[in-house]
Amino acid sequence: MAATTSSGRPSEARERLLATTTGLFYAQGIHSVGVERIVAEAKVTRATFYRHFASKEDLVVAYLQGIHEHVRANYEHSVASGKPAPDVIRDIGQQIVEEIRTPGFRGCAFLNAAAEYPDPDHSVHQVILSHRRWFLDLITDLFAQNRDVRPVGLALHFVMLRDGVMAAGYLGDPVEAADTFSRGVDGMLRYNLLEIPPAKS
Q: Is residue 37 assigned to a domain?
């Protein structure tokens, strides 16, 4: 159990460890960053580290859960806006675009972590799968608000577009990748939700 202050809030040391970890793991990879470096940069002792996290893997789980909660809060804020579902999907797409254009972007933290923890039974991989199920369910629910479409197929399409632009935005030109993604999302929504007929060949 994580240590907390008398007010029930996470301790400052834990917050500092997570903040340090988030920057290091995302920028340099998880396996390449050891506990000694985390402890040194967070300015805590090893004893303090292990008082908050039983192992490095526990810290990795907390790191990914923190990113999940941040993403979830942003996306669910869009959902709660009261806008029509297509506009909410576009809002989520725009948040993805903004992330790709952020300095220091190096792809999706969850996909990166999955490459380092491929075992599906590992606790870290389970957090990744849980995040992806949540995201797919969120997008599926949005598409399901239109009765004339197959929401699961469209949601899978959207998630695949998102995964692709995460890779393209890191490995290639982020502006070009973001623009291509935005056009793809807009085209998918227009074709499927506004019933624009396909172009004749």
A: yes
